Amino acid sequence: MLVSLSSWVYTASHLRAARAAGVFASAEDGMLALIAKGYVIQPDEIQIVQAGTNSFDGSSPHVWYVTACVWGGERADRFAVGNGAHDYDQPGSYFLNTKEGWVHVSEGAFPELVGFWMKAFGMAGPGSAQATHEWGSSPRRGCVR
């Protein structure tokens, strides 16, 4: 009983905070919004290079990880875009599908655990086991302009 109650409170509180930060039509829209908030000068180009379920077998279609490539702009933390090895940033983050839409859940909040309990408590949206962007499937094969 205590495990169920604490798991429900943990999941519900993280989802409430995530919804307050924004609910998106897709995980990709969520990533674009996250990037927009993270740059004081907007990037020259953004490319989503991977977006799909974080489970290898598709068993958690409501838990997605999205990776993007970002060229130009200026990050809010004032660090330069890229790290010297390349001229782009490559942010990635988790998005969970609720019944209201997609929300961003940071890695530190254990999104896979939140996703597990979402499914157990009937809080998960349908998601999709079909990725919209498979890593390396684009003609550019990753972060190439």
Structural category is alpha+beta
Order of helices and strands: HHEEEEEEEH
Tell me the number of structural domains: 1
Question: How does the major sheet shape up?
Answer: 5 strands, antiparallel
In the predicted model, the low-confidence regions spanning at least 5 consecutive residues are none
Q: How many helix segments?
A: 3
Mean pLDDT: 90
Radius of gyration: 16 Å
Query: How many strands?
Result: 7
> Tell me, what's the shape?
globular
Please indicate the percent range of residues in DSSP E strands (runs of 2 or more).
25-35%
How widely separated are the two ends? 53 Å
Task: Assign a percent range to the helix content.
Answer: 25-40%
Explain what the structure shows.
The chain is an alpha+beta fold. It has one domain (about 1-120). Helices cover about 30% and strands about 25% of the residues. It is built from three helices and seven strands. It has helices at about 1-20, 25-35, 110-120; strands at about 40, 45-55, 65-70, 75, 90, 90-100, 100-105. Strands 2, 3, 5, 6 and 7 form a five-stranded antiparallel sheet that branches. Strands 1-4 form a two-stranded antiparallel sheet. Strand 6 (about 90-100) and strand 7 (about 100-105) form a beta hairpin. Helix 1 crosses helix 3. The radius of gyration is 16 Å and the shape is globular.
